[in-house]
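Lecture notes, part 5. Sequence design as translation. It can be helpful to think of inverse folding as translation between two languages: the language of shapes and the language of residues. The source text, in structure tokens, appears below.
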């Protein structure tokens, strides 16, 4: 993996493929490995840049609360270090919150952007309490127990039952999340603002992908705007993890999106 220094901390990333640059951002307690199954279907036609976000994977995990803006600024630094004036940015779950922050503030650095099982809505009060409970559980029980409780619910029930290897892989990725990284990111998500306007007001090409059976972020939370520049897709049978559950289908959706506006 490559590494760059962002705000004094190291950010790790992987690259595969050639062509139009596409940055893929993972979700909470994931890493660039979340995209391992999908990247081979994309790398024949685009350059996939897949970072480990602050607090995750092989990147540094500073102590304290993070902010979504801070994590988006890390991604900007990575683009600068790679001398990339523009990319298409696609964010899964927490990665989608980071993508929206980036699109809101640095639209000139994007050819387009998308949310994969993510939303422009902020946490409601119940959601905010769940973030604090997650922090408490990580502090009291450790990251392994937290991941064991988190991961199965991310997958569509049928996929979880029929493919335990997926659950095992996602758990193994999650176990490597430093506890302080998971805590910092949970607090960042808790404080994120409503960014539905970042979708509805954008003139860039926008991709919104929902899983038919996503229990974390159902389609009605993903599809918050409807304009001619917005492409909305539901992946049948997918939960919150289509990049692992149905990587070829998700990659096909992404390639179709890129093909419609390819610069």
């Amino acid at each position: 993996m490559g590494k760059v220094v962002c705000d004094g901390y190291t950010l790790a990333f992987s690259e595969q493929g050639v062509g139009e640059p596409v940055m893929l951002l993972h979700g909470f307690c994931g890493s660039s490995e979340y995209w391992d199954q999908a990247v081979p279907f994309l790398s024949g036609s685009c350059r996939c840049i897949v970072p480990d976000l602050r607090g995750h994977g092989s990147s540094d995990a500073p102590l304290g609360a993070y902010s979504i803006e801070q994590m988006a600024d890390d991604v900007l630094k990575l683009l600068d270090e790679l001398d990339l004036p523009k990319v298409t940015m696609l964010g899964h779950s927490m990665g989608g919150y980071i993508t929206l922050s980036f699109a809101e503030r640095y639209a000139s650095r994007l050819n387009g952007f998308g949310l994969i099982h993510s939303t422009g809505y902020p946490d409601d009060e119940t959601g905010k309490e769940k973030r604090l409970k997650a922090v408490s559980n990580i502090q009291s029980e450790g990251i392994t127990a937290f991941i064991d409780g988190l991961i199965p619910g991310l997958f569509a029930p049928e996929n979880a039952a029929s493919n335990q290897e997926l659950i095992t892989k996602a758990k193994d990725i999650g176990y490597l999340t430093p506890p302080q990284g998971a805590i910092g990111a949970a607090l960042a998500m808790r404080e994120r603002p409503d960014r539905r306007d970042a979708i509805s007001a954008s003139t860039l090409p926008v991709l919104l992908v929902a899983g038919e059976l996503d229990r974390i972020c159902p389609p009605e939370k993903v599809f918050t705007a409807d304009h001619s520049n917005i492409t909305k897709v539901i992946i049948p049978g997918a939960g919150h993890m289509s990049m692992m559950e149905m990587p070829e289908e998700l990659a096909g959706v992404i390639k179709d999106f890129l093909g419609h506006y390819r610069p």
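The translated text above is only one of many valid answers, since several sequences can fold into similar shapes. The chain has a mean pLDDT of 96.
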